Amino acid sequence: MERTKDSYLVSVIVPTYNEAGNIEATIRKVSGMLSDNQINGEIIVVDDNSPDGTPEIASRLSDTCPVRVFVRSNERGLATAVKRGFELARGDICLVIDADLSHPLDKIPEMIHPILQGNCDMTVGSRYIARGGCEGWSLRRRLIRKVSGFLARGVTNLSDPTTGFMAIKRSLLDGLNLDPVGWKIVLEVIVRAKPRVIEIPIIFVDRQKGESKLNVKAQMEYLLHLWKLYSFKYDIVFQFIKFCLVGLSGLVVDTAILVGLVEILSFDPRFAAVFSFSGAASWNYLLNRILTFKDGRYTKKIYSYVSFVIICLMGLGIRIGVMHLLLEYVGMGKGRLYILASILGIFSATIFNNLIVLKDENRISPD
């Protein structure tokens, strides 16, 4: 059953930092749009402890506008400010806008309506569909946005993945583990919540007051955020790649120990392989816990390490067997050909070990 606008509460989230020149106009315009369209709403300003008086200006408007102000003293960043706004929101729908009047606030009813009608879970303001656009942008800025959008194609098919204008059903955010970096909360929500999305055309205009937050740091944070989202969406592929890279580093450790024991202490290569295996297995386990499976609790439960070593011991048997055949029957016992024999032995066991460990990650996990 459809619910009317009157039965819904809309939470308009406004992240701010040094927006003293814009925040009053933004709050008054949003308040007017809600009132004129008979939308029950609240305005939540999440400020990063602006030194220019932004939160004080916003707070003074609470007598005439439905605004609440929350000041963060220990956190910074637009995306995390929006996340905090989600947590503070009491509404059925959360609407996110910039504080600099760059988003067309007269589009608020159009952003909310498809969600109220049950046609989607989320609406996103797009500058790159019919009737959308940007006013006064330089060629350089357009190019940056195009490249940024292209880089996000692997995680979303939105026409404008770098937009910041969005509305979403509050229920989709409950229990959602958002982990944004920098300034693009829309991408974070779309990738993790997987909502049904409708794009709404908007005309984006540059801010008239204050300074833009789009700098080199913001662009680097965007790239880091993309990396995290790709890792999340293609988790199995990224785990396998990282697992293989860790294995390659383990090969270097293994070979270094092997050569040292053979060349300096005159160990038999097959006997030396037992010690080089022990060092490399410990190295691989540590890196896989930190980088591949991202589990910081490996130090608390020793049995996970023992399980890992037991699995690898199966591969060690294969490796030493291959080394023995190569050293005794293929003529690799001469000179330093034992190194090649060791590497071929390792490769013979690697596929077995990798598949078993990746498949059985739950079994070797500390959980």
Question: Can I get a quick summary?
Answer:
This protein is α/β, with parallel strands linked by helices.
Largest sheet: 7 strands, mixed
Query: What is the fold named in CATH at topology level of the largest domain?
Result: Spore Coat Polysaccharide Biosynthesis Protein SpsA, Chain A
Tell me the radius of gyration: 28 Å
CATH class of the largest domain: Alpha Beta
Instruction: State the end-to-end CA separation.
Output: 43 Å
Indicate the percent of residues in helices.
40-55%
Tally of extended strands? 9
Q: Which ranges are low-confidence, i.e. pLDDT below 50, for 5 or more consecutive residues?
A: 296-300, 361-367
Order of strands across the widest beta sheet? 3-2-1-4-7-5-8
Number of domains: 2
Tell me the series of helices and strands, N- to C-terminal: EHEHEHEHEEHEHEEHHHHHH
Structural class: alpha/beta
Question: Can you tell me the overall shape?
Answer: elongated
The CATH superfamily of the largest domain is known as: Spore Coat Polysaccharide Biosynthesis Protein SpsA, Chain A
Overall mean pLDDT stands at 83
How many helical stretches?
12
Strand proportion, as a percent range, falls in 5-15%
What is the correct CATH architecture of the largest domain?
A: Alpha-Beta Complex
